[in-house]
Amino acid sequence: MPLTKRIIWFIIFQTLSIAATAQKGAIVQGVVTDSLGLPLNNVNVRLVSLPDSFVVYTALSDKQGVYEFDRVMPGRYLVLAKLIGYHAFYASSFSVAAETITCNIRLRKENTLLREVEVIESQLGVVTEPGKVVLNLEKDILAAGGNVLDALKRALGVNVGSDGSIQIKGRDGVAVMLDGRMLTLSPAEVSETLRNLSADLVERVEVISTPSASYDASGRGGVISIRLKKSKRDGTNGSLSLAGGLGENYKMNGSAILNHRSRHWNFFGSLSGADNRRADRYQMNRQIGFMSGKSDFAINNYDLKSFKNLNIKTGADISLGSAHTLGFLYTGLHNRMHSVETNNTSVYSSGSADSVIRTFSDEHRKISNDALNINYNIRFGDGSSFSFDTDYLKYARRSDETLNYNFLDANGRLYKDVNNLVNRSPSDISALSVKGDYKARISGYSISTGFKSSRVSNKNKREVYNAGDVWIKQSFSDDNSDFKEYVQAGYVNVSREYSKKLSAELGLRGEYTESTSSSLTKGGYRKTYFDLFPSLNVSVQLAQDHRMSVLYARRIARPAYDDLNPFRYFLDQYTYRDGNPDLRPEYSNTVELSDVYKEKLTATFSFTRVKDYYVTFTDQDNATGVSRSTKRNLSSMRGWGLELAYDLSSAAWLTSSLNVQGYLQRFDLGMAENVVRNGTSWSFSSVNSMKLKHGVNAQIVLKYESPSVSGMYDFKSGYALDVGLAKSLQGKRGMLRLSVSDLFNSDRERYSSNLPALTMRARQKTETRYGVLSYTYKFGSRSDGGAGRNAGNDAERKRISN
Hints:
- This protein is mostly beta strands.
- The protein contains 6 helices and 48 strands.
- The protein has a 27-stranded antiparallel β-sheet that branches.
- A hairpin with a 3-residue loop joins strand 29 and strand 30.
- The longest helix has 17 residues, at 3-19.
- The radius of gyration is 27 Å and the shape is globular.
């Protein structure tokens, strides 16, 4: 048996052996109300262990004021609740030994002498902690009727580019998880998946900048974890949503969520569909000197895309007894896209028009992304637990594209035959993973350990028909590529509270990676490597109003499959991109130092060093005028960052969350000229929630990004302003929302390069300004059977709600 398999089976055996000696945990729950007994939504509730004052869990209360912590280990605890405009609540300490503990919370408003002033609860749905931001999309007026990618654009500390690339605190290479499952797709495919996923189906989004060792090491920029909705209420309940939008093009979508929960099982499902149209524009000017003089290439591209999406989620959690739960989950994301694209490349020689290449593209693309999860969970009497997950993902993309090339002279006349060809590029990705996680508390230490084994296969094929021109035959030659990746991993996390003011968590993850690739045109390779990824989280209460944290994580970013794929993708005769099979993984070391003042102001200093940092490079052949873009490793990248986040309640009707980030980055390009690029940038975000008259709530989000440097490109500044209104109807079962995204149509990407290898400027604009009118109606039970009750079957009912 190979050594790696022996290691994996040893980890499995040891983990199961430990789990076999353990027992189940408890539940702490309650209802948060105001002084009049009315439920409070979106209250930040924390479970704090004693005597060390370590925050074990954090939760947000729902619209009925209900909060819940499960898998609580035996010991002494207290509950802390905070909401802007209310006095902080500290519950009396209690011991956890029984299956269910109920701790109801009543918050008292600040400024109680000013009776004419109504201090409202926070409408932002944002919880900020060192290294982590939790977003409640149900509270986001602008998210209704939209998609998840657009919702991330408004998230504090998150930047989304025009091409869908995602950054956390200025760091790219972000990994995305959907319902606890890593999306093993390329960045472009991940962004397209999020763009096609309805935000109405999402319960919360967690943005984690420095993940612990329990997370996959992939994603040097951090992890975004997306959790889809699943009700915890007894009986049958759900919601229906319908939305329509209009900008330059139309947008329509609808969704339905259904949940039925009984004593021993929980069935849940959701369905959403969308019919949208979007226009993308791209312009680029390149200057080169070859042959007898200087030449200019001006590219003008317009792409009108039509999307039809269908998202399905269905599953069940079944209680098999007092300590066992079996769960099934299927998620299907299906998308059909029709693209009609026009591209004009105008060639100028010494300032005079020379020729034009006019390309027409008609593409039909179908994507299916199906995932199945089977989960088995055991809870033991001493509070420890063991969970076992098996995940299978099947991603299939079918693309049929008809291309029409017209070669025109300076007078607009054809100087060679029109060329028509058909390009078919099917892609299939399958991923199978098995993992186990064990959590326990031993002699004052909280310990979690586990393993994961995954296999990913990516097969790409290119079939080209009717290629007549010589350069087209060479550029679009038939090819097959087959990429496989195996990752075997194990981890351990240990945390302890050493005093009332000091706590620490130390983690270590090991991953063994084996990857193979083969191609008809580029040959093949085999790579193997083993790496260790430590993590650290230390929290110190320096004073009554100051809590300081130090976080560290080492992570990896493996190249996306498309970036390794040697296929060439031509925009025209003079412009193409291709993959780089020699691309190496990136390794990052990130340190964050945070200080939280009065739970309102958080200041964070960060430093990141990335080895083998890879970015897109554009090279041009001055003899032929051909421009080639590909990913390439730099020597390194170093980045320093400072972030200030402030939660502000400036008036009885206004709640704001402000965020300012500044960065200094140094890129060592490692080129023959030994070019070193330095860049400074900063960004500002403001999320504002207002309570207006007649029960109307409003939301305004402003984001600004200063000029910046990334690799060989200089980016210009950009900003966007989003506004929205919401009103409850039909006894608060219905919610009507109206929103406008990118009110001034200013969200665009502009960049240039003046390096010796390339002189160019470009502009990329995606359709971002549109208005959306949506209505959501909730039906069924409004009460949570677990709130304020200590029924004998509470533990069983709560187990199947996870």
